[in-house]
Amino acid sequence: MVDADQTFVIVGGGLAGAKAAETLRAEGFTGRVILICDERDHPYERPPLSKGYLLGKEERDSVFVHEPAWYARNDIELHLGQTVDAVDRTAKTVRFGEDGTVVRYDKLLLATGAEPRRLDIPGTDLAGVHHLRRLSHAERLKGVLAALGRDNGHIVIAGAGWIGLEVAAAAREYGAEVTVVEPEPTPLYGALGPELGNLFAELHREHGVRFHFGARLTEIVGQDGVVLAARTDDGEEHPAHDVLAAVGAAPRIALAEAAGLEIAERAHGGGVMVDERLRTSDPDIYAAGDVASFHHALFDTRLRVEHWANALNGGPAAARAMLGRDLTYDRVPYFFSDQYDMGMEYSGWAPPGTYDEVVIRGDAGKREFIAFWVKENRVLAGMNVNVWDVTEPIQQLIRNKAPVDTEALANPHVPLDSLAS
Fold it and tell me: What is the DSSP letter of 266?
């Protein structure tokens, strides 16, 4: 039975919000749990949207965090298709945007996520311009890629980040022609640096993807609402039937900002500032997932992590903190990607400029290796490519922060466990 004396409200029905609600019940919280989701679909996971579901290899129902009946069975008051347009920190209330309903909270969790950045160029209102963030986006794009494959159609993708490359791989598997336009000199430049970015460029070229590096889209040309081509700032024009904007995501901070909560600087991701317990500048409001910017002790910097694992782990951590548990949120950032026959996992944080060298263990030419980003002989990050069951020792190397012998690190015959111990 629910004890109405305490009410915890969660704004945001993604993975972080759904796992926070699950954790509250698992930890014995008997008060009201209200989960507010601005989408009409039940909470779902996002990785399949650019992977298995987009490729037609996973069913639609496989993306959901819980079966629909789970919420009522666990006394979670789920509000689908509802937005929150105001938080009153003095009264400790949230107001629904549709009908003005006001709900009081004892603790509030903001798990509002992120939204795709838009291309600020002419032609983005054409019907063939797409983004990929929501299940409805994936459903639409899935049909588009299948049609392009049937008709030998062409998609131009703006951005060679993870979403751009995963969609490029899916488009090629459907048989569509693909051109990727990217301002940096390699794919994934901000995530992996130039050393490993070229490996992904070669992989995609082998599968027929064309790259146009060092350029940005300046205009999407169309007629009668239909996309015809995409132009770049160096004067090139690429034929296109569809365009995908994959130029990153921005944290959805409008609600927090209007409530007067502290917001991190753009250099630190621009999310809602939280402490090591995921608590905002208001002691009764927490934030988790893509929207939260937290200080990470391992890297001695403030990070905003947009990947699946951060939502999976951050939501439960915030829930426990809301219940008064003593904790420090310092999970090693982790993500994974599948492109064609290549799978990879990445742990850590090492953008260009933060490391001295990249150490390779294995055969990069065969795409079976582990890469380590190293600074002063300390491992900052590791990526395993078609090599499995090594995430734990890689993360332990990062956590140890101890100098390692880089020759031993590169030697596949030296067990990783021995270096991480």
Answer: G
